[in-house]
Amino acid sequence: MCGIFGVYNLPGDAHAYRQRALYLSKKLRHRGPDWSGCTVAGNHILCHERLAIVGVESGAQPLTNDDESVILSVNGEIYNHKALRKLCPEGTHFKTQSDCEVILHLYKHMGAEVVKHLDGMFSWILLDTKKNRILAARDPIGITTLYQGWNSKQPGTLYFASELKALNEECDRIIAFPPGHIFDSETGETTRYFQPSWWEGEKIPATPVDYTLIRESLEKAVRKRLMSEVPYGVLLSGGLDSSLIASIAARETQKMISGQVPLNKDGDDVDESAVASWPRLLSFSMGLEGS
User: Fold this and answer.
1) Where along the sequence do coiled-coil regions lie (predicted)?
2) Looking at the predicted structure, is the pLDDT value of residue 286 above 60?
3) Tens digit of pLDDT for each residue in 168-203?
4) CA 257 remoteness from chain centre
5) Among the listed ranges 83-87, 113-117, 225-229, which one has the minimum average pLDDT value?
6) N or C: which end of the chain has fewer CB within 10 A?
């Protein structure tokens, strides 16, 4: 997981705050050892500690559009980024192979609605310098972490970070940013964008259980999470769920490498070039005795 840190509407020039921002962002460096980036725009600042997974050579963040008026810092992965690129107008210029860059370009045409089109695990901060606007969003069920903070001595200034440790020296009020929500400085509101039909517990499904559909849905969910240009592995607890996921991951990887099944099966829109980068699951030692 990467680490993101951002401050919106600082009193005065954010360049004077840059060293402080780098100090706070460094507290997140264990999350992203591959690259540290910092962008200052007016009285706003975004920082990023990167763990490179997709677009390894070109996806350094914060990302910017062509005229650098929109700045983006993301922690996470956008599984359907290939499909989303097709929604961009013809001639859209992509600077990188990053799965996250598509957010920048779709924001230009959709505004805050872009978050409703994302399939992935993510927390991100987007700054539109022309509109003096900031958006912050977290994935539907909160796989990634995001916190929002305020300092009572600086009313109007907003802080965002992947972990509390980057905020507790600056803020006297901190909240966990709610999953499935987006904050928009234009309205000053944090609103829910994720509203599935099963969200209401009182609604009992009347559709009979389709075990084939369950299996295919699980396989698809595992397949799209194999999107990586670096070695990947699985964590095994010894239980049924992790063993099943590991088995599917190993099988799907081998199928894709050997060409036994068509890539982008059933409209998956998985980045097949990234999936096919590693022919097998790897084992990793976590430093535990016997591992």
Assistant:
1) none
2) no
3) 999 999 999 999 999 999 999 999 999 887 777 777
4) 26
5) 225-229
6) C
Three-state SS across the chain? CCEEEEEECCCCCHHHHHHHHHHHHHCCHHHCCCEEEEEEECCEEEEEEECCCCCCCCCCCCEECCCCCEEEEEEEEECCHHHHHCCCCCCCCCCCCCCCHHHHHHHHHHHHHHHHHCCEEEEEEEEECCCCEEEEEECCCCCCCCEEEECCCCCCCEEEECCHHHCCCCCCEEEECCCCEEEECCCCEEEECCCCHHHCCCCCCCCCCCHHHHHHHHHHHHHHCCCCCCCCCCCCCCCHHHHHHHHHHHHHHHHHHHCCCCCCHHHCCCCHHHHCCCCCCCCCCCCCCCC
Mark 127-150 as b/e (b = at least 16 C-beta within 10 Å): bbbeeebbbbbbbbebebbbbbbb
Query: Could you tell me which residues are beta bridge partners of residue 49?
Result: 3, 36
Domains of the chain: 3-195 (3.60.20.10), 211-275 (no CATH)
Specify the pLDDT at position 43: 93
Q: What is the pTM of this model?
A: 0.85
Tell me, rounded to whole angstroms, the distance of Cα 217 from its chain centroid: 21
Mean pLDDT, range 121-145, rounded to an integer? 96
The answer to whether 2 is a known catalytic residue is yes
Structure tokens at 44: 């706003």
For position 234, what pLDDT does the model report? 77
